[in-house]
Amino acid sequence: MANKTTAEKLATIQIGYTLDGATIELGAAIIDGEVHKEAQVRLPLSMMNRHGLVAGATGTGKTVTLHMMAEQLSTAGVPVFLADIKGDLSGLATAATGSEKLSARTDSIGQAWAGKTFPVEFLALGGDGNGIPVRATVTSFGPILLSRVMELNDTQESSLQLVFHFADKKNLELTDLKDLRSVIQFLTSAEGKDELEELGGLSKATAGVILRELVNLEAQGLERFFGEPEFDTAELLRTAPDGRGVITCLELPTLQTKPMLFSTFLMWLLADLFEDLPEAGDLDKPKLVFFLDEAHLLFSDASKAFLDAITTTVRLIRSKGVGIFFVTQTPKDVPAAVLGQLANRVQHALRAFTPEDAKALKATVSTFPVSDYDLEETLTSAGIGEAVITVMNERGAPTPVALTRLRAPESVMGPSAGDLVKSTVAGSALLAKYGTAVDNVSAYEKLTGKAAATTGPAAPGLPPVPANASQADVDAEARRIEEEILGRPSSRTAPASLPDSSSPGTSGPDAAGPVTGRARRAPRQPAQAGGGMVDDLAGALGGALGGGLKSMVRSMGTQLGRELLRGVFGTSSRRRR
After folding, report:
1. Is 476 within 8 Å of 499 (Cβ atoms)?
2. Exposure pattern of 313-332 as b/e (b: 16+ CB <10 Å)?
3. Model confidence over 349-383: pLDDT tens digits?
4. Contacts of 244 (CB under 8 A, 6+ apart)
5. What are the beta bridge partners of residue 291?
6. Burial of 491 (0-12, 13-18, 19+ CB in 10 A)
7. Please, are residues 77 and 239 in contact by the beta-carbon 8 Å criterion?
8. Are 575 and 272 a contacting pair, CB within 8 Å?
9. What is the largest CA-CA distance in the chain?
10. How far apart, in whole angstroms, are the C-alpha atoms of residue 387 and residue 63?
11. Among candidate residues 251, 236, 249, 325, the one with its CA nearest the CA of residue 288
């Protein structure tokens, strides 16, 4: 390696990155300290579904790299999903302006640069932001992913799977958190004692722990995410009228307070796509590419079931035409079983300030093919906007390792104006479909005999869900769980007087916990004896009044005994639209 001339190194990279099909242009190679624009480094579009890793220390340009790749994928007609962690990816909707500094950079790497806008759709989890509200039902989210959000241990996760099994078997639709809470409360009540015994592996104490965690989720405001209308992941596969792929940008303004929900939601999206998309085999270009920023959040403190499910999804979703790029600081943030599935590498600079850093650097270097670079030195001296790259070529072999000066994005590298984001959301066709929360007949209504809540008009950035429980209500419910179900003194201070629904001695399905905005409902008329299907139809019609004909058909189909199928994450493969 050391005896090669610059010309020989240059020839190696030129030959290695001479590709026949459509490509994503990444930049120009740097050889012996000089940028060579005649040595373009690129990634075959047909290999984007072989997944990839964008890694590097903070501030080295990872976000700009995924920004630049997303632009080119959109131009090639490939839809893209981005998690906007820092709030600056909304700049894709605004054309960048040129400057002398920018021109000097683009000229040096042979990039024909022009400011452009791209078709962007803005989403927000449960309306937590300006984007279109994204919701999922508890049923489709499944027990494994929900256990991840609640940080349950393996035993509690297994118990939650039994609760989901019971709800599926008894046709109790789990739409939102109050539905799941009411099912567990029923199982721990006198009326549900026999059902609890039939489940076998579910103890009353474990059910109480799960209930307490559900209350904590509600206290954090996460009930806004669970509900209907559920987001259809097929929306991520759209193209704009001009043929460019739509870039879906998920706003995450409160990531630091809800990191587990964010990371788990991303896996729900992938799991749902995995269940719905047909096998596609080798394609000229992927159907969709995910960029999962802050990927370490996916794997931190994850259960074995969760890690196994991620590994399975990453391994198999490639054949559905979906590519996944994990974006994180070091490769060690990604488990070896997942890392082994990633064929494309964009490695920004690493720092080696501590012995642990030095160890991580050596481990990273060992994962690259043999090259003409001293990678330990290269990875610690690379500048901002430079990266060491090796990808899979069209024959399925790794390309030569190349230190690359990366291309500049053509849209703004920063947030778009707030008014532009709001106007984009207001003009989106998705707002009419997902902007208004609905509360159809589900497990809560069936177990408590209460009517479905009404909903208000749509509002961008703030979906009109019924009022949340007050902190006093949340504390009262948590105290009841600890004292009545867990059988121990509560750590929460009791108020001077408690609402009737949380007073000691209350049990059974009517003890549905705090009287929230959704719980203050007029009770339905008692069902006539022997109603059977009539009762089911009445419940279906109640849902139809709040959610339309689809809800009625859905409820009728469920009552006729349709069994829910669950996928690799325990998610439902037949979600109710």
Report:
1. yes
2. bbeebbbbbbbbbbbbbbbb
3. 998 888 888 888 888 898 899 999 999 999 999 99
4. 74, 75, 77, 118, 119
5. 82, 325
6. exposed
7. yes
8. yes
9. 92
10. 13
11. 236
Answer whether 119's CB lies under 8 Å from 244's CB. yes
Q: What is the DSSP letter of 442?
A: -
Q: How many CA atoms lie within 13 A of 96 on its CB side?
A: 21
Distance CA 345, CA 328 (A): 12
Cα 479 to Cα 492: distance, rounded to the nearest angstrom:
6
* Residue 262 tokens, joined: 């964010």
| Nearest alpha carbon to residue 395 among 50, 73, 54 | 50
How does residue 534 score in pLDDT terms, banded at 50, 70 and 90? Answer: very low
DSSP per position, 374-387? -HHHHHHH--TTEE
Q: What is the token pair recorded at 214?
A: 């559900």
Q: In sequence order, what are the residues at sequence separation of 6 or more whose Cβ sits closer than 8 angstroms to the Cβ of residue 268?
A: 136, 140, 141, 142, 145, 569, 571
pLDDT in tens, 296-329: 877 877 777 778 878 888 888 999 999 999 999 8
The strand pair at 34-44 and 52-55 is best described as: unpaired
Residue-wise pLDDT tens digits, 446-501:
998 865 554 444 434 333 434 444 556 656 665 665 565 445 566 556 655 433 43
Q: How far apart are CA 2 and CA 372, in angstroms?
A: 7
